[in-house]
Each structure stands twice: as structure tokens, then as C-alpha cells.
Protein: 3-dehydrosphinganine reductase
Organism: Patiria miniata
Amino acid sequence: MEITIFQCIIVTIIALIVISLLWLSFSVKPKLMELKQAHVVITGGSSGIGKAVAAEVLKQGANVTILARNQARLQKAREELQQYIKDKDNQKILGISVDVSHEYTAVEDAIKKSTQELGPCDILVNSAGMSRAVSFEDTDINDFKRVMDANFIGSVYPTRAVLPYMKERRRGRIVFVSSQAGQLGVYGYTAYGSSKFAVRGLAETLQMEVKPYNIYITVNFPPDTDTPMLTEDKLNMPRETILVSETSGLHQPDEIAKIIVNDAKRGRFQSYVGLDGFVLATVASGMSPVASLMDAVLQVSLMSLMKAISFIFIANFNSIVMKCYKERESQKQK
Ligand SMILES: *[C@@H]1O[C@H](CO)[C@@H](O)[C@H](O)[C@H]1NC(C)=O
């Protein structure tokens, strides 16, 4: 009898703790950001994931600025994106031609111009970037800098330019598009992967600095996505890179865009695609922020299981590399 009462008390206490943690997690969670009154700025907005994000936020009622280098492609994207506008009187698409990784003052001017036209930026999506898949020794020595500039500096400059406006208004979301190659080392991506690891480091560090200002960071880790960038890169891609990347499948830009927009609205730090994206995100989560108690519980309880699964993936990747190596060696002998 006494034991039963004792057990009841324990169970009640545990239930109270769980409920209060849940309550806490929902109350500290960032508020959902609606897009109906929002201005979304997208770099690399004239193609690939960037253009798909533009289409998605237009469908949800936002004003959009797309930043891209090539004037002709920018114009073409603007025309193409018109069809997604829902409220013609209240939604606009602004296109500004700028290289976001070249000169900081030019990026600052572009952001200033977009602020004058459509108001301060509520969500910045850093989607501009370039890919390079070659083995370390075959990589043009200048490409390490080039890729780092395009992917890392190209994310730093626009972020730096919008941040003062966001801090002043105590409102903002910043999205970084990293890659699955920014969560684990993949053959052929010594330049690209390193720059995407850097993007993740930037995201995680910046989140700690801007949280008091109610600004939330999202870092997306897309798998292979069917974009012009990938098609071009595949022409010279090592066989190892193709075979390893293929294990995650090929995804469409609008699928990735939907996930990015949804996660940014919710202020989720990690943003991933599919089941293997979830496994990778869990294994690679380290001390990354979590946006909900649910994420925390999942990561704590699944980390070691996911690590075990990762050995299977890695063993498979290594056997692909070994097979390609042997094929190359035997061809050399012929
Ligand atoms: C878009 O910007 C214009 C200002 O140019 C503003 O009048 C309008 O309300 C904005 N729409 C949205 C959806 O924020």
C-alpha cells in the first residue's frame, strides 16, 4: 500500500517535470513568422534552390528581392517568378544585380536599395554559391580561394549587411544553405565541402550572438539537388563523388525550398531533407542549438544508434573509393 502511494508520487513528479519542460520548450520556441507581411531577400535567386525559394515565399504572400550577378538571368527569373504572385497590388519582386562575394560596399548598397523599395528584410536566404568536385590534387590551386569566397564570403557579406536592420527591429531570420558535404567529408569535395563546413560554423556562432535580438538562424543541408550548378559540375565529377552522392538520391529544388521556408518560419536551426538527412543531422548535431524539446529528446536518445548506422554508410563509401582506385590502377597497367 505504502509503496503504491510512493510510486504514485514519483510518477506524478516525473509527469510534472515532463509537462513543464514541454511547456517551457513551446514558450521559448521562436514565434512562427508569417510571410504575408514579410520581405524576403534571396541571394543566388535567379536559379536553382534560390529561385525555388523565391517562388515558394511568393506563393505565401511575401515581397521578394533577388540578388544575382548576371543581369540577363536576373531579368528572366523575375519574369518567370511573376506567375507565383498571389496579390498583385501588394506583392513585388525586385531584382538587383550584384556579386555578393566580391565587394562589401556593393552588397551593402544593394541591401539599402531593397530596404528603400520594399522595407527592411525579414528573412535573408543565403543561397548563392558554387560547386567544385575534383580530387584534392586535381583541384586548381586557386579554386580553394575561389570556392571559399563564393560560398563562405558570399554568405558573410549579405548577412552583415542585413543584420543592423534586423537587430534594430528585434526581428529576423537568416538562412544559410550548406550541404550534406558540410556535415561529412565526401570524396572530391576538399574545396566545396570545406567551404560548406565553414558556413555551418558561421551559422552556429552567429546564432549565439543574435539570439538576444530575437533573430533566428537556419542552416540547411541539402543532398544532391537537380540544379544547373550540379549539371555543370557533373561533367567533370570524379566517379567516386557521383557514386557516393547518389546514395542520397537526387532531389528537386522546390522540395528543398519548401523545407527551407518552413524551417525558417519556425526558427529551426538544423534543416534537413529526408530520412538520411535526419540521420546525418542527428550524428552531426554536436552542440548545435535545438528549436524544440522534441528535437532535443530525439537527438539525445538516437545519437548512438545513428552513429552506429553511420558506420555502415562510411564502410560503403570507402568500398566505392577502393573499387574505383583498383579500376584506375589496373587501367594504368594496361
Ligand atoms: C511590399 O512592399 C510594398 C512597398 O513597396 C508595400 O506597400 C506592401 O505592403 C508590401 N507587401 C508585403 C506583402 O509586405
